[in-house]
Automatic annotation (TrEMBL):
<dbReference type="InterPro" id="IPR011006">
    <property type="entry name" value="CheY-like_superfamily"/>
</dbReference>
<feature type="domain" description="Response regulatory">
    <location>
        <begin position="1"/>
        <end position="62"/>
    </location>
</feature>
<dbReference type="InterPro" id="IPR001789">
    <property type="entry name" value="Sig_transdc_resp-reg_receiver"/>
</dbReference>
<dbReference type="GO" id="GO:0004673">
    <property type="term" value="F:protein histidine kinase activity"/>
</dbReference>
<dbReference type="GO" id="GO:0071474">
    <property type="term" value="P:cellular hyperosmotic response"/>
</dbReference>
<dbReference type="GO" id="GO:0000160">
    <property type="term" value="P:phosphorelay signal transduction system"/>
</dbReference>
<keyword id="KW-0597">Phosphoprotein</keyword>
<keyword id="KW-0902">Two-component regulatory system</keyword>
<comment type="function">
    <text>May play the central regulatory role in sporulation. It may be an element of the effector pathway responsible for the activation of sporulation genes in response to nutritional stress. Spo0A may act in concert with spo0H (a sigma factor) to control the expression of some genes that are critical to the sporulation process.</text>
</comment>
<protein>
    <recommendedName>
        <fullName>Stage 0 sporulation protein A homolog</fullName>
    </recommendedName>
</protein>
Amino acid sequence: FSATQQLRAWEVGNQRIRTPVVALTAHILAEHKERARQAGMDGHMAKPVELSQLRDLIEHWVAQRDQQNRTTSTLQAGV
């Protein structure tokens, strides 16, 4: 949790794009998901993780990053 908080502070301080961080834990209770969210994590996966779940999550964040890059390029081009 502290590593994620440090990463978020670094991203803000260096004007970097947010890096997706997902908690991978054996805990499935809502309070654990909320703790991860409060620490700055973007998602939560409970073990055992199925490869299809992991693939779906990675594809989601890749699509988000692609959208951010398109938006940034459009703004920089002044379109």
